[in-house]
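We emphasize that the prediction below concerns an isolated chain of 244 residues; any contacts that depend on oligomerization or on bound cofactors are therefore not represented. The input was used exactly as deposited, without trimming of termini.
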Amino acid sequence: MASPPAPRPTAVGACVFDAYGTLLDVHAAVGGHAARIGGPGGDAGGGKAAALSALWRAKQLEYSWILSQTGDYEDFAALTERALDVAMATHGIADAGLRQALLAAYQELDAFPDAAPALAALRAKGVATAILSNGSPAMLAAAVGAAGLAPWLDAVLSVDDLRIYKPAPRVYALAAMRFGCAPRDIVFISGNAWDAYGAARFGCRVYWLNRTPHNGERQPEEYGLDRLAEGRIASLAELPDRIL
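Result of the prediction step, given as a token string:
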């Protein structure tokens, strides 16, 4: 796929973050119930629990992309439920109580340890911060509140207003409109390579958050992001010094 030149650094109109997989740990829901599912200890680090969590996430995103391509829309809460049902059935898990527990846990996902400190550091430097997410407004309000991130955010923006999912270009336009600035003045951060690519194609300054996975190696470069994005970071702690 053709790659436009990376946006030039400019003044920061706002730092806008993806929520799920960037500020919030999407695997924390299954992680809290791993022993009940079949994973080791109390995390989703392997076995049946890890496979369930990975498929749940993959189906959730797959449904969002299919709906956007066909012009249909259901909110992210509905997609999250449907994706979990498929993941549980695929792994032979028939437990209504566990299903309800996992859906409840998804409403209160853990924030990554570097999330709140990075947001606070940006706000201390006078930079506006926001979330731009596929999540429905109710999901995001619950998750942001439970994770304790609300005090460090100026806005929480949902695709629900547009009824289309990322990486549709008009989703990223929500951030520019909210802060009254050009796309090049938005610094967008995502731990999802496809999302980072979408924001970069729209014209935002993009930092791809490529956290170190359990095997000690970073994810490989995808979508030409090493050329297209302004930078790749392993932790949100790097961000304030990189953009200011």
